[in-house]
Write a structure and sequence with these properties.
This is Globoside alpha-1,3-N-acetylgalactosaminyltransferase 1 (FORS blood group). The active site is at residue 261. Its cofactor is Mn(2+). UDP-N-acetyl-alpha-D-galactosamine binds at residues 78-80, 83, 168-170. With 312 residues, the chain is an alpha/beta fold. It has one domain (44-307): Spore Coat Polysaccharide Biosynthesis Protein SpsA, Chain A (Alpha-Beta Complex), CATH 3.90.550. The model has no long low-confidence stretch (mean pLDDT 91). The chain has an 8-stranded mixed β-sheet. A 3-stranded mixed β-sheet has the order 6-11-10. The chain is globular and about 85 Å long. α5 (232-251) crosses α6 (259-270). It has helices at residues 2-32, 59-68, 87-97, 138-157, 232-251, 259-270, 305-308; strands at 51-52, 72-79, 103-110, 125-131, 163-167, 171-173, 185-189, 223-231, 275-277, 283-284, 298-300. Bound molecules: uridine-diphosphate-N-acetylgalactosamine (UD2) and manganese (II) ion.
Length: 312
């Protein structure tokens, strides 16, 4: 008799436990984001920074957290020379996908201000055109971005808003790029060097004379120069450092293998990013999609270098 009651109690306890687990899985886990996991890709770096992939975050939850903080996001984009042709698509798709519902201020640097397209922007979003000189070397245009980003933050942005992203113009948004990407120092894994390359084959600057030097056994990921960001303070520090290292190299007659991208990679090796964005955040249209890529958020268009660069 006693053992019968005991076993009834035990099985009731079991039922209670199982139902509690069921309720937890069904209602609580989605709220906490516990259902947000991926086992097929790296989602945390060894220095404990999240690596953001589709399926690792709850967008609504994150948006509601950042709505309360009344954040604003600046974005820089350079459209010098013929690269102005990419600006319309970039701006139109940014309206559709980039921090929708948040305050966004896009800064367009160009030598062709008259050719900046008119794109209708939602309330709370604005665009400022800043003139820059043209150049007959694409390497210089690409690398000078660090100097101009530094000046923009120092002269116009400090005290305004919190975050900034610096993006290549020859690209389009195809999916949400939002609050999940926010962090102190944010880097994007280069899509070409994530899946099959060993670290020793990453195209870091390998000459020790350069201030962008990364030794064979060093480096974490290979990050792209076409998208990075973070807080104003962190990006200012990054831009200042990359600019002064680039200029000091130039004085000694050395240009890193991939210009400012090499300096950025050196910087990120020394100063680890606090958030890493997966290649979803800068894909390339010509690449076929790996199965780990569940969504493409931002992607470089196919372009004919010989046609659009001042020196190809
Ligand atoms: C996807 C990615 O990470 N791309 C990087 C890569 O090649 P990319 O082939 O993507 O470089 P790119 O030709 O797009 O040049 C970088 C950016 O500089 C600007 N630009 C360049 C040339 C020009 O005549 N006018 C102009 O406005 C424009 O914003 C362009 O998007 O390597 C470059 C450095 O060498 C940069 O680090 C790029 O960000
Ligand atoms: Mn590009």
């Amino acid at each position: 008799m006693f053992s019968g009651v005991l076993s009834l109690l035990v099985s009731m306890k079991m039922i209670l436990r199982v139902s509690a687990l069921f309720v937890f899985c069904l209602f609580v886990m989605p709220l906490c984001g516990f259902n947000c996991s991926r086992t097929d890709v790296v989602t945390l770096t060894p220095w404990l920074a999240p690596v953001v992939w589709e399926g690792t975050f709850n967008p609504d939850l994150l948006d509601s957290i950042y709505q309360q903080q009344d954040i604003s996001v600046a974005a820089t984009v350079f459209a010098v020379g013929k690269y102005i042709m990419f600006l319309k698509n970039f701006l139109e798709t940014a309206e559709e996908y980039f921090f929708v519902g948040f305050k966004v201020h896009i800064y367009v640097f160009t030598d062709r201000p008259d050719e900046v397209p008119q794109v209708k922007m939602a309330p709370g979003r604005q665009l400022t055109v800043l003139p820059v000189p043209s150049s007959n070397r694409w390497q210089e245009i690409s690398a000078r971005r660090m100097e101009l980003i530094q000046k923009l933050i120092e002269e116009r942005l400090q005290g305004h808003g919190k975050y900034i992203f610096c993006l290549d113009v020859d690209s389009k948004f195809h999916g949400r790029w939002g609050t999940e990407s926010l962090g102190g120092l944010v880097a994007v894994i280069h899509p070409a060097f994530f899946f099959f390359f060993k670290r020793s084959n990453f195209p870091y600057e390998r000459r020790p004379q350069s201030r962008a030097y990364v030794a064979e056994e060093e480096g974490d990921f290979y990050y792209c120069g076409g998208a990075f960001g973070g807080s104003l303070e962190e990006v200012l520090l990054l831009a200042k450092t990359c600019r002064s290292n680039f200029e000091a190299d130039a004085k000694e007659g050395i240009e890193a293998a991939w210009q400012e991208e090499s300096h950025l990679n050196r910087y990120m090796w020394i100063n680890k990013p606090s958030k890493v964005l997966s290649p979803e955040y800068l894909w390339q249209d010509f690449k076929s999609r790996n199965s780990e890529i569940h969504i493409i958020r931002f992607s470089g268009v196919v372009k004919n270098y010989a046609e659009i660069r001042p020196n190809a």
